[in-house]
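Quick one: co-fold with S-adenosylmethionine.
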Amino acid sequence: MRHAEFNHPVLVQVYDAMFGWSRDDDFFMSVVDALPCARVVDLGCGTGRLALAMSAAGHSVTGVDPAGASLDAARAKPGAERVAWIEGSSDVLPDAAFDVAVMTSHVAQFFVTDEQWNQALADLKRALVPGGRLTFDSRDPRARGWKQWNPADSRRQVCLPDGRSVTATIDVDAVTDHVVSFIIRYSFSDGQSLASTGDLRFRTEAELRSSVAAAGLRIEQIYGGWNREPIGANDGEFLVIARA
Ligand SMILES: C[S@@+](CC[C@H](N)C(=O)[O-])C[C@H]1O[C@@H](n2cnc3c(N)ncnc32)[C@H](O)[C@@H]1O
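Sure, here it is.
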């Protein structure tokens, strides 16, 4: 199944077990916290880790994601009743309703074609109030992070709430024009196995700058690492902060 890691109820549990709070979330929280009591939209909110934390910090949060199984997991978490959850993508966003928009854990790379990406940026610009901020992460293709997406380097094992353990590995099928196609294989301790395929676009700094500007947003900063290092210095990331 395509992107089953967000759409299959069991794999959603695996996602939550594997990806807890991290320095990525600290970075995005610091950007959002710059404006107290902000109206925030988390596009591609997944199972709601950051959306719930932003809500607990006093922000008014809307979480949007096309993956119903991920939203079901988010809605079942403590504090979920204080977040507005919407199943869909950027096209469902209301006009001029948010002070801050976030896309975290590389949601931006899920918009693979230029058309999808430009539409998402246009929708986010439309959804922000004048002066509102957009922040997101995207992996720098020069770091070639997908080179570590092989069964030996990517192997991870976690325990699930039902007592089973699961081992996940990633393998790259193809890299074409900065689109990386991959498969994640899951094997469970009771013999079950599942797989998920997907594609992610790795945009260059120039592509990010020109597409963000074309959507009518002004780039304030692009960092290269989670501690606000310059581009190229550290984590192989582009951490973008732009203003409507
Ligand atoms: C790696 S997960 C990140 C989830 C969450 N932001 C986090 O930090 O855990 C990527 C998310 O992007 C969502 N996504 C994929 N395509 C999307 C689209 N077109 N619009 C909005 N979200 C999308 C997926 O459903 C998934 O929940």
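If it helps, The chain has a mean pLDDT of 97.
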